[in-house]
Amino acid sequence: MVKRDEDFEINSFNHSRFSNNLTYISNGHKPPNMHKWGPGVRDIYALHYIERGKGVLETRHGRFSLKAGESFMIYPHMEIHYYPDLEDPWEYVWVDFNGEEAEKLLSLTMFSPDKPVVPICNVNLKSFFDIGVNINTKPFDKLRSDAKLRLLLSYYIEYYQKETLILQTDYVGVAKNYIHNNYWKNTMRVSDIVNAAKIERSYLFRLFKEETGMSISTYVTEYRIRRACELLKSAELSIKSVAYSVGYRDQLYFSKIFKKATSHTPSEYMTLHANRSVL
């Protein structure tokens, strides 16, 4: 049966679920005093970690009493009022940030506008709030501050993972992601993909077959051929280079696999698409 090029329009796994738009604004440390804020709204996110003492956060969703080791999140455009305990005023560190990715990252945690407080965990998170100065004058300063912010949020995702996500590991997605990042390695084996997913081999095989309709090895071959098609269309690489670029050391073997999949040899495929580009 002759297969068309369209047969190889593999739905790529999204390597990044996010928009890469996460921006550090400022951070700081508030010593124990009677500082309070609100009621009012802000247009940024603000994450607070309480080192010691107590305080209160009030939102339209309720009144939250907080103590050392707990964290609270301020969401954009949400009316808030927070203040220290009169007898044991809190001391906390905080970081302000914004960006389209912020909401998506926080959706992976226990934080939500109606539940802006998370409990004490067994790790002191204070040190991760040491992100940067309020004004980053150098490009590398800004990059480092944004990276440290991402690191901080990664720990909140780890220690305060949303309960519904704990039981929903996307093993097939992990396997696909590994394939898409490593297909060019001629040393890649199915066992490597299984190890990346960290589940039992036969279980992954079953899940993968159910979701994609093909075996892992077939998916790897089709993904490699898909990438080879894209490279051959550019006509900037030799067939040998294309073969090596998609994980095949042997050019003859690659040509055999390519023709079986597309009904064209690599050279025929290059000529065919070169003619189409001229028309």
Report on the structure:
The protein has 279 residues and is an alpha+beta fold. It has two domains: 23-165, Regulatory protein AraC (Jelly Rolls), CATH 2.60.120; 170-278, Homeodomain-like (Arc Repressor Mutant, subunit A, Orthogonal Bundle), CATH 1.10.10.60. It has ten helices and nine strands. It has helices spanning 100-106, 139-159, 163-166, 171-182, 190-197, 201-212, 216-234, 239-245, 251-262, 266-278, and strands at 23-30, 37-40, 45-52, 54-59, 62-67, 71-74, 80-84, 91-98, 117-118. It has a five-stranded antiparallel beta sheet with strand order 1-8-3-6-9. A four-stranded antiparallel beta sheet has the order 2-7-4-5, with no helix packed on it. Helix 4 (171-182) crosses helix 5 and helix 7 (216-234) packs across helix 10. The model is unreliable at 1-19 (pLDDT under 50). It comes from Anaerobacillus alkaliphilus. Residues 173-272 form the HTH araC/xylS-type domain. It holds the Pfam family HTH_18. GO terms for molecular function: DNA-binding transcription factor activity; sequence-specific DNA binding. Keywords: DNA-binding, Transcription, Transcription regulation.
